[in-house]
Design goal:
Largest sheet: none
Helix content: over 70%
Mean pLDDT: 82
Distance between the termini: 56 Å
Shape: flat
Number of strands: 0
Low-confidence stretches: 1-12
Order of helices and strands: HHHHHHHHHHHHHH
Structural class: mainly alpha
Length: 317
């Protein structure tokens, strides 16, 4: 009896499939996968076409234009537009200002956002404090520039307050001398950008399990030790997002600088984004403007790639 049970065919109906049927069976499952890929490709085609038309094609044309001179006939000039970065003092200062903007727009929103989020996480007036901090983020860069221009001009609110409290020696033209003018514009940008950092850090703080803090307190860890060894490690993914957003925003800052100083006095406060606009549309040097645009694009893509790679590494841990 056991032998007949063991020798029974495994397929339904007591019939063993032939070799031809075994060869044809994978083909039946291959076509739905190909049809799904074709369907997915059809849905993606409009997006790919739009990206190619409005992003890739202008970038390729910009790269091409950067190798030509700024004359009417536009002869091929190789890397002359790129070598201007080493010879033109205005572009050298623009690179310095861009590095200052990157450092300031990364450090200030991160530190201020984390500090404000920790202080308002469990306080009585936390909602009002968060509203006051987040409200500037709802304003446009031009509106922020108008507000700070009212404060920083020679006869503006800051100098008037200093004069009223007998601190006339500290009153100055805040937007007239470098590097002070770049520093105050970075502070104005941080005043706007800190709001989104506060929101992200609050989300991160509220996702930390209270049990971990209680366990640290039972083990004798103080407030600073809990913050350093428990809170900060669990805020790591949020910190990467805040730093990545601040990095990209600092590299492409334009509207606040343009409304406050238009890159002046002279060209002392230009960043690469402002220099690109100035060279292309005001100085009528499209070749130089295209070269600056390519350099700025490469920097933004490299920074974004490092940020995304770091974020993926954190998620993979």
């Amino acid at each position: 009896m056991s032998t007949s049970t063991t020798d029974r065919p495994a397929t339904g109906g007591g019939r063993t499939p032939t070799a031809g049927e075994e060869r044809r069976s994978p083909a039946r499952h291959r076509w739905p996968g190909g049809r799904e890929r074709l369907t997915a490709g059809g849905f993606m085609a409009p997006a790919v076409l739009l990206v190619s038309l409005f992003l890739l094609a202008p970038f390729v044309w910009t790269v091409h234009r950067g190798f030509f001179a700024d004359t009417r006939t536009s002869p091929f000039s190789w890397f002359d537009n790129y070598t201007r970065f080493a010879s033109d003092p205005a572009l050298t200062r623009s690179i310095q200002n861009t590095l200052m903007w990157v450092a300031g727009t990364v450090v200030l929103p991160f530190v201020l956002g984390l500090a404000i989020a920790c202080m308002t996480d469990a306080t009585r007036f936390s909602r009002l404090a968060r509203l006051c901090v987040v409200l500037p983020y709802a304003l446009s860069g031009s509106a922020v520039a108008v507000v700070w221009n009212f404060m920083l001009t020679t006869d503006g609110a800051v100098n008037q307050v200093l004069t009223s409290v007998n601190l006339d020696s500290f009153a100055q033209g805040w937007l007239l001398t470098w590097p002070g003018n770049t520093v105050v514009m970075i502070i104005a940008n941080a005043w706007q950008a800190t709001g989104v950092a506060v929101i992200l850090f609050l989300v991160g703080l509220q996702s930390i399990p209270p049990e971990t803090l209680e366990a640290g307190s039972l083990d004798g860890a103080g407030s600073w030790q809990q913050f350093r060894h428990i809170v900060l490690p669990q805020l790591r993914p949020v910190s990467i997002i805040v730093i990545g957003m601040s990095l990209v925003n600092g590299l492409k800052s334009f509207d606040l600088i343009w409304v406050l100083t238009q890159g002046g006095p002279g060209r002392a406060t230009e960043t690469l984004a402002v220099s690109m606009y100035n060279e292309t549309f005001l100085e009528l040097r499209p070749g130089a403007g295209a070269a600056i645009a390519v350099v700025l694009t490469v920097i933004v893509l490299a920074a974004s790639w490092l940020y995304l790679r770091r974020q993926l590494d954190v998620k993979g841990e």
